[in-house]
Amino acid sequence: MKLVFLTFLVACCCATGANEIFTGGNFRPNNEDILNSYQLKSSRRNDKNALPDLLTLSSELGLKAFYLLAQRAGLDSMLRGTDSLTVFAPTNSAFDRLPQNVKASLHDPEVLNRVLLYHIIPKELKSGSLQNNKVIKTANNSTVRVNVYENQEAGQDKVTTINGSPVYKKDQLAENGVLHVVDKVLFPLTKGTALQYLTQDMATYSQTVKLLEAAGVENTLNQTTAHTFLVPTNAALEKLDPAQLRHLMNDSKTASQIMKRHILQDVTFHVGFFDNEKVKTLGDNSKELTVLVGPGGMEVNGNGTFSRVLIADVPVTNGVVHVVDTLLYKP
């Protein structure tokens, strides 16, 4: 039951936001706060023997929400222990942005413990070990995916992400490991592969699954090879003329060509896309799509058909799902 509920929480977090954190305060750190805290302690941290433990370090860095919740979850002894760990600690504002119902769910000690353990790796991994498309086992026997993207600002370091969440500050050293600050709260991958994610919500994706089966590409969404999946909803398919949809359901060749154009060759979370970027798909001749990124969100242009991304960055075990509102029908 807890796993099903966590799946629901992930969907909520992908789709909505919130204003106040459930810990009883409104914690909104800025870059300067964390940088100043780091600089005050930097001389001490040059001496490995003088470093704080991971829990104390999170407090010193101004990560008050993580610090308080880790204790509430009973993880203080783990984060103060002698075993080497890696912690992906969310900013206070990351917790603050969680939907209200998700915040409420984290009052359940079991759910809170599972969520925070998902931010802990049972070994030390500095940023040099965080390689593109690396899958890492977490302390609760789930996995996170690392991706490394070019920075859209010229001359800046590449952007490292954990399940699509940018690493805000890397390599904060502790006596028992290393802490990386991330911009989102991470949730365990209880939904499985991309296909399993769809079949868990047939009210939204039943027609999509039927079309994938008609196209003979459903196994691509269920295999271990990782991709980016642009998934149209039932409502997206209902925009088609009924005769067009019937034709696709009965023409496996055309359906295959179309659905393969909804699968990108690489794993790309939204932070990894550039505006007006050409991306290769699994379609014939590596058919390209154009991704448009702006203040209003993200769109995909497939030969003149524009599809808006409704829900971005749903991590699955074989890549990432972006839910779109229009089928890229044109060849």
UniProtKB/TrEMBL annotation:
GO-annotated cellular components = extracellular matrix; extracellular space
Q: Where is the signal peptide?
A: 1-18
Q: What is this protein called?
A: POSTN protein
Keywords of the record: Signal
Q: Which residues form the FAS1 domain?
A: 50-186, 192-328
Taxonomy, top ranks, is: Eukaryota, Metazoa, Chordata, Cephalochordata, Leptocardii
Question: What is a single molecular function from GO for this protein?
Answer: cell adhesion molecule binding
What Gene Ontology terms for biological process does this UniProt record contain? Answer: cell adhesion; extracellular matrix organization
Q: Which organism is it from?
A: Branchiostoma lanceolatum
